[in-house]
Amino acid sequence: MQKNRQTDGCRFDFPKPASVNTVCLGPDEALANNGRFCILKRTSNEAMVNNYNAVLLNLWKGNIDVQPCGNVTAVAYYVAKYASKCEPHDTGDVIREAISNAKRQGGDVWKQLFSISMTILNKRLVSAPECAYRLCHLPLKMSSRKTVFVNRCRPEERYRLLRFDSDETSIYNNIFDRYVLRPNELENLSLAEFAVRFETVSNTTWSEDNGDAELRDEDITPERYIRLQDNTRLRVRNRPAVLRTRYYTINSDKEAYYYSLLVCHIPFRNEGELLFENETAEDCFIRRKGELRPLQGDISSEQIGHAELIIQQAVAQATALNAARETDIGNASMLCVGEKILHDDDNFCEDMDERAVISDELFLGSIRGLNIQQKELFQKVSTEIENDLHGQESQLLLFITGGASSGKSFLLKLIVEHIKRCYAPTVDILLKPKFVEVGSLTGVAARQIFGKTLHSIFLLPIEKKIL
């Protein structure tokens, strides 16, 4: 145990109190409990054991100390506590005094902020290793990959740095300026590909002031360059960078979501020509989906796969919603299309994960094969999905019945596919979300609709009668 010099108790609150139940504390109680947000269920024999979770402990197979953060206040406190963990206890008083002095002295706001920031820096604790690294001009962090940020919002929402009066350097050009000036040989390169493959040329060189040259892990790969149309040079990266962008979802901002995909993955010379006049980003995305270019070349398979999946999900969703809005869908024969949907999965089993979406051709052909009643039901479900995507939460309960061979299973399969397509872009693919569950009372019926039994879905025990 480590003693707390002020209270003569353990600063980690050992021994822990025994508790019959696990209790999550409210914000006020958590602050009074030194930032600990829960009291874990434990016996008196576990008084000297860290907080743990049985499942995580079995997976980690090592010491853990975990606790849930049940509300926003708990998360904010937890992050702030770790960010200021090594700061002096009187830092708050010093900052308050600095703010009071700055307000008394008056002047421009930036001067007041500068005065406060210098006070904070002067009072900051610096560890011995950090001092040694800074004195020896050694890097405080290293990474095997560089990152590049592309602000893929609309042009009017981006920040620009003002240029000096002299126009001798192009350091204030951003990635968009350099991209439109790319050489003609790279005409078909998208902005995302351009950003991760090329970097600006810095005039700084390695010197003795930067540390011992022999300690530097130099890259012996020869440097290659490309020349832009304004005669400036860009260096070809020996290893592609990791692309970082603004994160949009179709729920938060649908227009920005589709525009961000367009500007990153469709080649252009003039960004203003990406969309037609008065055309929405969603309509443009549907019109130009064949031109989308995911990250290619020698970029990691994980990056390629993730980018392609995001694009495929957006295309599938746009195709589904656009097809459902169509009002001139004919009543073509649905027999061949329906049979293909219903019997195209020979490897069906109840434990199978989410199936990949069917092809656009088959999906659209199936919609065209709906009869009038099926089409009305399909459009009703699609309208509710669109309302839900726009934040208009509502519950839709339907009871559908029909005779044999009336197309119930065919329509159900099509609606399930439609739901998957519409909701797929709303959650990161890495989380492997499941948006729809199809269930039936018996295994035979479940097999007919590519679903599961209710016992399997809800993990219900199977009751067996003994005769």
Automatic annotation (TrEMBL):
Enzyme Commission number: 5.6.2.3
GO molecular function, one term: 5'-3' DNA helicase activity
The keyword Secreted appears for this protein: no
Domain DNA helicase Pif1-like DEAD-box helicase: 370-464
PANTHER family, alphabetized: ATP-DEPENDENT DNA HELICASE (PTHR47642:SF5)
Similarity section: Belongs to the helicase family.
Name this protein carries in UniProt: ATP-dependent DNA helicase
Organism name: Parnassius apollo (Apollo butterfly)
